[in-house]
Each structure stands twice: as C-alpha cells, then as structure tokens.
Design a protein that fits this description.
Growth Hormone, Chain: A; transmembrane; 69% helix; Sugar_transporter_CS; single chain; transport; alpha+beta; transmembrane helix; 2 domains
Length: 508
C-alpha cells in the first residue's frame, strides 16, 4: 500500500468530516438493531415473545425499505444544490429521530401508540440514511485521484462497521455500569440519548466543509442537471447501468453485508442463546479485527479491479455460510456437553406483590465439564388466596461460552466479516465510476439503497421467519434454513455480475 501513502492535499480533512457524520448515522441506525431483543419487550405486547421479536425486526426492516425513497429525495437535492448541504440535512434528521426513539414511553404506558411512534421514527431514519451514504461516498470520490478512488473511498466503507462496533461498545459499557434491573428499566435508552451529542459535534465539523470540486466546477459551468431523476432513470442508457449496479453488485453485497453482521448477531443471541454481554463482546472483537480489511480490499481494487474482489466475496459467502453457521450452532449446543450436576447452583429471592401474592425469583446456573455455564431465570407467583397454585414459570435462558469456544465463535464471525470487506470495501468507488457527475448522487444512491435497504434490510426478518417455520415443522437443521435467502440472492447477483459487468463505463 506504499503507492497511496502520499495523500492528495486536504483529503484527510474531507475523509474525517465525511466519515464522522456517516459513522454517527450508522451508529444511530444500528442501536435499534443491536437492542432489538430489548426493544421487543418494551414497545410490543408480550403475549407472544417470538411475534414481538419478529415485529421488532419488521420495524427495523422498515427503516431499510424506505432507504431507496431517501436516495431519490436526497439524491435529487444533492445533484441540484450540492453534496455538502444535503448530507448535513440527513445528519440532523437521523440524529433527531434516534434521540426521540429513546424518549418514547413503553407499550404498557401508551399501548399501540408506542410501536406506531417507533415505526414512524424508523422511517425517518431510513429516509435520512438513504441520502447520507451517496453524499458521503460521492463527496470523497470527487476529491480523490481517479487511480486511488478505491483506497480513499474505502475509509467511508469502514464507518458502517465502526458505527456498529461503537454501538456495541456503548451498550456494553451501559450494561456494565448499570445493574441488570436498571438497564432493563431505563438504561437501554442511554445509547439513543447519547447520539444527539455526537450529531451536534459532527454538524459543527461538516458546516465548515467546502463543496465537492467536481460538482462546484460543473455548477460553475452550468452543467448540473435540472431533473436528475429523469436523466438517471428515464434515459435507457443510464438506466441499464443502474440495473447492472443493483442486480450485479449491490444486491449481493447487501445480503452478504447483513448476514455477516446483523444476522450473525441475531443468530448468536437468539438461536444459540449466548449471554447478551458475551455476544456483544465477541462480535465487537471480530469487527475490530476485520475492519482494516475494508481499506485493504479498497486499495487492492485500485490494482486489480473492483468486480473480481466483490464477486469473490459473494462466492466465498455462498459456499461457506452453511458450514460456518452449523459450527456456530454446534459450539453452543448444550446437548453435546456434559453437565456437572454437583456444580448446579440455585439462587432464590422472594418478594411480595401489592395484592398479597408471593413472588419467587430463581436463578439457576449449571456448570459443564468444558467450563461452559448455562443459566436461566424463572419466576413463580403463589397467589395469596390459593397458596397451592402457582403460575407457569417464565424462563429466560442464557449460555456463557468457555474461552476456547468464545474464540472459535469470534473466528467464525471474523471470517464472515472478511466476506463483508471484500464485497463492501470496493463498492463505493465501483458505483461512483459508473455514473457522470451531474447525476452521480441520484444514480448511485438508488441501486445501493435498494440492494442494501430492500434485499439486505429484509434479511433478518426473512431469515428468522424461514428458520422459525422449519423449527415448527420439526426439521433437523432448522437453524440453517434462514441462510437460503442470502445464498440465493448472492448467487443471482454473482451470475449477473460475472456475465454482464465487464468493466468501467465510459462516462459522457
């Protein structure tokens, strides 16, 4: 990477300003996904926990579904009035929506108004994110030398993963500082509230930025578009490249990206029942190890081309997903471990309810021969007028992996992150180079956000649904069924990209 060590004048300032805001927007967006398990208990009725969790994932996915509309709205503004002012607006919109999610009263307080307000704010988040990425990627690319675009734009690519990493760290610190009861009661709101401070700092940084030199030049020469939507999608020649960008690259990149990070998180926490804090820590370590490879593959794409690296990442994901997730499941499968009955411990706490009922809280910890620990909480309510009767215990289960299994799980997530860096590291430069300056913001934003927002954003919900359906049907490897969605989508994208994307478009 020595050939890119000499930075163009002012490029680091541009990258820092663009990355800071983009990182914060991704942090805001990921807080919701990272806390999906907790949010399901706060904003949705609890009669059916699985349905509540699926509803939370659907609300999370709604933010992705509207991202293409944000790409159209803000992409049009970006191509007409400029990159700088457009993604300043998206930053404020995202930050405000995230802060307000942390302020909404729970379902027990305001009923169905709670999930409705959360859904509306998620839609605002999605609209804002739909305009943010295209602006940041375009802004950096238009400051970078053409032969180094892959390297310099790859710094923007790290912000999504770093945003997720920071969200996990903030959640982990909050859980550590507060008691379990305090975090469950109000502490989960803290990561949402903190975003407003980061947004204000980023706004002050972005306010001092200048406009992209290529856009400023086009504007000075009167060559900006008066109707970016029509020129982007009404022109058959340009529309062909929009469709190729979507189905031959962004679609496959989107499902690989969300499988390697979001579905991995959900799978470990919900399917493997790994304790929440340990899940956050192992994912954070894997992300920290993998993030530098965005830069590596962005740099490499300047040398050997964007297409080959992205398609290789898709192909590896298609081949490896099922073996990886089978191993992840087996690591946490307690049926394959020997429990040490003598080391089983019970902790009992008794409290009295206002109506005179007695409430017994049990925490049971089972030690296994390989040092794995399995704990579960159960609550039994004995009614004052019917001492012999008790309600059915509510059980919360969690497994704490031993050291070796934890590092194996980190390795398996890290391998998935490598696939992510291969498909995601070069894609900003790839998309920027497909479209001319006057319609670049609009043209690149739509395929990117359809690929990521629709195909990628729907992945957690679709995958959990497919796995739940297979489990209900008694299928043996039910936990692998959700993977068919990213495997099939990535395979389609791989074939289209291999056959129909030949190289750089000759820009007019």
């Amino acid at each position: 990477m020595s050939t890119v060590t000499k930075a163009p004048k002012g490029i680091w300032k541009v990258i820092f300003a663009s990355s800071a805001g983009t990182l914060i927007e991704w942090y805001d967006f990921y807080i919701f996904g990272s806390l999906a398990v907790v949010i399901a208990t706060k904003f949705f009725p609890q009669g059916n926990p699985t349905a509540a969790f699926l509803s939370t994932l659907a609300t999370f996915a709604a933010g992705f579904v509207v991202r293409p509309f944000g790409a159209l709205v803000f992409g049009r503004l970006g191509d007409m009035i400029g990159r700088k002012y457009t993604f300043m607006l998206t930053l404020l919109l995202m930050g405000g929506a995230t802060f307000l999610i942390g302020c909404i009263p729970g379902y027990e307080t305001i009923g169905f108004l709670a999930p409705l307000l959360v859904l509306l704010l998620r839609l605002l988040q999605g609209l804002a994110l739909g305009g943010e990425y295209g602006g940041a990627a375009t802004y950096v690319a238009e400051h970078a030398p053409a032969h180094q675009r892959g390297y310099w734009t790859s710094w923007i690519q790290t912000t999504a993963t770093v945003g997720l990493f920071i969200s996990l760290i903030v959640i982990l610190i909050t859980k550590t500082v507060l008691s379990k009861e305090a975090f469950d009661l109000w502490g989960w709101r803290v990561p949402f509230w903190l975003s407003i401070l980061m947004v204000l700092v980023s706004y002050l940084i972005r306010r001092k930025m200048s406009e992209s030199p290529l856009f400023a030049k086009a504007k000075a020469e009167g060559k900006t578009s008066t109707n970016p939507l029509k020129e982007s999608f009404g022109n058959r020649y340009n529309l062909k490249f929009v469709l190729l960008a979507l189905f031959g690259a962004a679609m496959g990149q989107g499902v690989v990206w969300y499988t390697g990070q979001f579905y991995a998180l959900s799978f470990i926490q919900k399917t493997c029942n790994i304790e929440s804090a340990q899940t956050d820590s192992l994912l954070a370590i894997a992300l920290l190890m993998g993030t530098p490879f965005f830069i590596v593959f962005g740099w490499l794409s300047d040398k050997i081309g964007r297409k080959h690296i992205m398609l290789a990442g898709m192909l590896l994901a298609i081949i490896c997903y099922r073996p990886i997730y089978r191993t992840m499941y087996n690591i946490s499968d307690l049926k394959q471990k020997a429990a040490l009955v003598a080391d089983t411990k019970h902790d009992l706490k008794v409290s009295a309810a206002a109506n005179g009922d007695s409430v017994y809280h049990y925490t049971t910890v089972v030690q296994y021969s390989d040092a794995t620990r399995y704990s579960y909480d159960s609550t039994v309510v004995v009614h004052a007028d019917k001492a012999a009767e008790a309600t059915k215990p509510k059980i919360a289960k969690a497994t704490l992996l031993n050291g070796n299994d934890k590092w194996m799980m980190i390795l398996l997530v890290f391998v998935q992150v490598i696939f992510v860096t291969m498909v995601y590291g070069p894609i900003a430069a790839f998309l920027v180079e497909m479209f001319p300056v006057k319609i670049r913001y609009t043209s690149m934003s739509l395929p990117y956000h359809v690929g990521n927002g629709i195909f990628g954003g729907l992945l957690p919900t679709v995958a959990v649904y497919l796995a739940s359906k297979a489990k209900d049907a008694g299928q043996g490897d039910w936990y692998l069924e959700g993977l068919w969605y990213p495997i099939i989508i990535a395979a389609i994208s791989f074939v289209i990209g291999l056959l129909y994307i030949s190289g750089k478009r000759k820009l007019e």
